[in-house]
Design a protein that fits this description.
The chain contains 13 helices and 13 strands. With 328 residues, it is α/β, with parallel strands linked by helices. The protein folds into three domains: 163 residues, Periplasmic binding protein-like II (D-Maltodextrin-Binding Protein, domain 2); 92 residues, D-Maltodextrin-Binding Protein, domain 2; 53 residues, no CATH class.
């Protein structure tokens, strides 16, 4: 009898875990704010997927992987935009079916979620200002005294401890926030995976990155799909799908994602945050603010200094400031 009860419980858990997939959709959570892995843009193109709730369109390497998985599962892909810290809670509360968001399958995360095989492998770098002495760094010791940070709740932040004499700054929530801090001089560098650094440097001519030789396990530098625990059949299915995407195909997808992210940043019309800065400025002007004040205030809202902002980095600030002829 005990064995029967255990079996029934196991079946019930499996049925519950697969309920969302049975509905015909594959809901994938990602930040949509970490190019070239994932980003948000205002206009659709042949590579993007609408973000759930009408929040723009998602593109990037993670989106390409998600599209291939959803197609092989014969499901409709739905991208759900969620802040980094909310991804695993959303997964475990059945808001989404998977996390495909440049997430590494660390031992700590494996306590609460399961992971598939890796769909990308990378290495760790430090993004710095091109005109700083740290742009010539070759080893970890060359960063002694530097103010270094990384994204909140990632293993990137833990490897800072490998740098002797470093000034470990508070972790930051997003990569755009770190780029802003770096370009403003608040920090000397931040930890990133190579693709993210390539994308950041392509979009910001005053940035560069160096590879000083961090020690990291393969599980820390690999990226995998996170799934709610108790779905071995789904893991096996997705592993089979990922196995069909060979190294050359993965590299081609990543190269294209880096290229698309750089092109996206070159065009004002293709930037989701900049579109809202334009709209925000019009709203402010309608209240009687001068054109200059409207653009300036809207730019700083996009920059992320005001409550309830769109929150996305130095590029948005620069865009607004250029409109009123002030330096960013």
């Amino acid at each position: 009898m005990k064995r029967i009860i255990v079996t029934l419980l196991a079946v019930a858990m499996l049925l519950s875990a697969c309920a969302a997939l049975a509905e015909g959709t594959f809901r994938v959570g990602m930040e949509c704010d970490y190019p070239p892995f994932n980003w948000t843009q205002v206009d659709a193109d042949e590579n993007t997927v609408p973000i759930d709730g009408g929040m723009g369109y998602a593109g990037g390497y993670d989106v390409e992987i998600a599209k291939r998985i959803a197609e092989a599962l014969d499901k409709e892909l739905v991208v759900v935009k969620i802040e980094w810290d909310g991804l695993i809670p959303a997964l475990n509360s059945d808001m989404i079916d998977a996390v495909i968001a440049g997430m590494s399958p660390t031992a700590e995360r494996k306590i609460t979620v399961d992971f598939t095989d890796a769909y990308y492998n990378s290495d760790l770098v430090v993004v710095v200002r091109k005109d700083s002495p740290y742009a010539e760094a070759k080893t970890l010791s060359d960063f002694a005294g530097a103010k270094i940070t990384a994204q909140l709740n990632t293993f990137h932040y833990t490897v800072i401890d490998q740098i002797p004499g470093v000034q470990k700054m508070p972790a930051m929530e997003t990569f755009p926030a770190m780029i802003t801090a770096l370009t403003s001089g608040a920090i000397d560098g931040y930890i990133s995976e190579r693709p993210g650094a390539v994308s950041a440097c392509a979009a910001n001519a005053n940035l560069a990155f160096v590879t000083p030789g961090f020690e990291a396990s393969e599980e820390d530098t690999s990226i995998a799909v996170a799934l709610k625990q108790g779905q071995p059949e789904l893991i096996e299915q997705i592993n089979g799908i990922l196995a069909g995407i060979d190294t050359d195909a993965r590299n081609a997808l990543m190269d294209n994602a880096v290229l698309m992210a750089a092109k996206l940043d070159e065009s004002d019309d293709d930037n989701f945050v900049r579109k809202h800065i334009r709209e925000d400025s019009e709203t402010l002007k309608a209240t009687g603010a001068s054109a200059d004040d409207a653009w300036r205030n809207a730019a700083f809202r996009g920059f992320g200094d005001a409550p309830g902002t769109y929150g996305s980095g130095i590029k948005s600030l620069s865009f607004g400031c250029k409109k009123v002829g002030i330096s960013s």
